[in-house]
UniProtKB/TrEMBL annotation:
Leader peptide range in chain numbering: none
Every Tr-type G domain range: 4-187
Catalysis: reaction(s): GTP + H2O = GDP + phosphate + H(+)
Database matches in Pfam families: EFG_C (PF00679), GTP_EFTU (PF00009), GTP_EFTU_D2 (PF03144), LepA_C (PF06421)
InterPro entries: EF-4, EFG_III/V, EFG_V-like, EFTu-like_2, G_TR_CS, LepA_C_sf, LepA_CTD, LepA_IV
Name the record gives this protein: Tr-type G domain-containing protein
Source organism of this protein record: Piloderma croceum (strain F 1598)
Xref: CDD domains: EF4_II, EF4_III, LepA, lepA_C
One example GO MF annotation: GTP binding
Length: 608
């Protein structure tokens, strides 16, 4: 395919606006995949099991299709982007491989928080944007109103907007035509030295790392020797081809094409997203935009049965082969034994990983409360702390800590006018600053109220647990949320430790803002009190900051032996009880003379 017959595009949208459904329809319409019987609703591009279960796209998937237009065959390369705020960087890098994007908006919902953020990423990259209104088959569809919203928000001409139903297929043909007519072909040179952008990678058990690349210039053939600008490592291309939608080997890939390569790359950490590949001996200027993934949320992961650590670690290793954005280090805790400390892009990323891990490892795991990376500034150095156990005990004027800083995000929330007050309250209760709002439209009389966009800064730590679900419940599901990193800011933070019979439980330590220490201390102590089994003696449960006790509950002593009430009763039942006790003894953790089953930590940590 000469460049002028190639189009590289992506579909960008807020979650649930129909990206995967539209991608399926496009693949069907071009005969890339068979049309499925109606009723089945499993998107081809959402390959991972969790993605299907949750209906979200986690990993970008790419497919090429062939479309005849004006009697000429065109090669259309669809680069699917992940649909969640945690994966903003993956969206940006997928777009680097395109010349155009379909901006898909649900005509029953209108412009949402991620519609705005993905639009800006696409515009900054200079992509041709094709606006599309989806779900016009639904009775609640308001195409004129939403078109006006898109005009006022993005300065889009309503005449350029395509109206479709990805579900019924209505209008989808017009998208193929618009892709060919409106999106410019890639501008590379087939004869120039090879320059390829690595924008995603997969892991294959047999062939090792499979990289997805976009050839900017030159031609790549099987057997070619290539090198990475970033690592300087050299490889030989053993296989290459296009995604159609599964891997389809070809003899070469040339400028403008998107495809996959297998080379002798064994470790997925060698495939750096955003890296530039060139031919050995023909160095090129690397493309800009390379940015290593950065973990923003950390948590410890431990097996419920400490004997299972190696099995757990093995499962984690296997999963990180397919998801390089997770960082892993070993961690050991006196309460929970050997475990791993993992870094994630965000909380959804953490939830998805946890679910995949539980599927893979076939058991529940204990995950400690998530922590963001804090900056502890000493007189002579700055330390990044992402584990509460490493946080300095005291941060007052007597310590040598100058200040502590926490990561901040710039948040935007889109919400119907009726819920504006609720959402403002929610933001304030999460330490919002620079809170502001404006209107996206003025509503349409009695049927729907005006939409407001609220912007503010929030500490990242405030949104990692529960913020999203609180936002949804306080707006009856109508609010949408997006954020981007906003640097670091000084903050009044302290390490909170929980004591059992005066002994600290390391795995439960938290970093808290001073303004919330009472509430947090009390809530956790209460929870511990309700979960920890009573002992033969009285046990104080306390929350402490430094030497100061913030909250306390007392676990009263058990009155008598567990089996006492069974005397004279069923002997086999008594035997069984003793047997159970013995079995669980092996998994008991002893803290401050208190025996705690490891399962108790699962219960303590599983919900906030
Ligand atoms: P994504 O999160 O953007 O990938 O959205 P999906 O493609 O998974 O679609 C979200 C939901 O909207 C699914 O239940 C789809 O069946 C539904 N959906 C998508 N497009 C349409 C449409 O045109 N009409 C109707 N009625 N439903 C649609
Ligand atoms: Mg999807």
């Amino acid at each position: 395919y000469p460049s002028e017959l190639i189009r590289n595009f992506s579909i960008i949208a807020h979650i649930d606006h129909g990206k995967s459904t539209l991608a399926d329809r496009l693949l069907e319409l071009t005969g890339t995949i068979q049309k499925k019987e109606s009723g089945t609703n499993k998107q081809v591009l959402d390959k991972l099991k969790v993605e299907r279960e949750r209906g979200i796209t986690v990993k970008a998937q790419t497919a090429s299709m062939i479309h005849s237009f004006n009697g000429q065959q065109h090669l259309l390369n669809l680069i699917d982007t992940p649909g969640h705020v945690d994966f903003a960087w993956e969206v940006a890098r997928s777009l680097a491989a395109c010349e155009g994007a379909l901006l898909l908006v649900d005509s029953t919902q209108g412009v949402q928080a991620q519609t705005i953020s993905v639009f800006h990423v696409a515009r900054e990259r200079g992509l041709k944007i094709i606006p599309v209104l989806n779900k016009i088959d639904m009775p609640a569809s308001q195409p004129e109103r939403i078109a006006a919203q898109m005009q006022s928000t993005f300065d889009i001409n309503p005449e350029d907007i395509l109206h479709i139903s990805a579900k019924t297929g209505q209008g989808v043909e017009s998208i193929l035509e618009a892709i060919v007519k409106r999106i410019p072909p890639p501008s590379g040179h087939t004869k120039a030295p090879l320059k390829a952008l690595l924008f995603d990678s997969l892991y294959d058990r047999y062939r090792g790392v499979i990289s997805l690349i976009n050839i900017q210039d030159g031609t790549l053939r099987k057997g070619d020797k290539i090198a990475s600008c970033h690592t300087r490592k050299k490889y030989e291309v053993t296989e290459l081809g296009i995604m159609h939608p599964e891997e389809l080997p070809t003899t070469s890939l040339q400028s403008g094409q998107v495809g996959y390569i297998a080379c002798n790359m064994k470790n997925s950490s060698e495939a750096h997203i955003g890296d530039t590949l060139h031919r050995v001996g023909e160095p090129v200027e690397p493309m800009e935009g390379f940015q290593p993934t950065k973990a923003m949320v950390y948590a410890g992961i431990f097996p419920i049965d400490s004997n299972d650590f190696l099995k757990l670690e093995e499962s984690i290793k296997r999963l990180t082969l397919t998801d390089r954005s997770v960082t892993v280090t070993r961690e050991s805790s006196s309460a929970l034994g050997q475990g791993c400390r993992l870094g994630f892009l965000g909380t959804l990323h953490m939830d998805v990983f946890r679910q995949r891990l539980e599927d893979e490892y076939d058991a529940n795991v204990i995950i400690t409360a998530p922590t963001v990376p804090y900056k502890v500034i000493y007189k002579d150095r700055t330390v990044l702390v992402s584990n509460p156990t490493e946080f300095p005990e005291v941060t007052d004027s007597t310590s040598n800590v100058k200040e502590v800083q926490e990561p901040i995000v710039n948040a935007s929330i889109i919400v119907p006018d009726d819920y504006l007050g609720e959402i403002m309250d929610l933001c304030f209760s999460h330490r919002a600053d620079s809170l502001d709002h404006r209107y996206l439209d003025s509503g349409s009389g009695s049927t729907s109220s005006a939409r407001a966009i609220v912007t503010c800064t929030l500490p990242l730590s405030e949104i990692v647990t529960g913020f999203f679900s609180e936002l949804k419940s306080r707006s009856s599901g109508f609010a949408s949320f997006d954020y981007e990193e906003g640097g670091y800011a000084k903050s009044n933070l302290a390490k909170m430790v929980f004591l059992l019979n005066s002994r600290p439980i390391d795995a439960l330590a938290l970093i808290v803002h001073r303004s919330a220490q009472q509430a947090i201390g009390r809530a956790w102590v209460k929870k511990l009190h309700s979960i920890i089994p009573r002992q033969m003696f009285e046990v104080p449960i306390q929350a402490a900051i430094g030497k100061k006790i913030i909250a306390r509950e007392t676990l009263s002593a058990m009155r008598a032996d567990v089996t006492a009430s069974l005397y004279g009763g069923d002997v086999t039942r008594k035997m069984k009880l003793l047997e159970n006790q013995k079995a669980s003894k092996r998994k008991m953790k002893r803290i401050g003379q208190v025996d705690l089953p490891q399962e108790a930590f699962y219960d303590i940590l599983k919900s906030k």
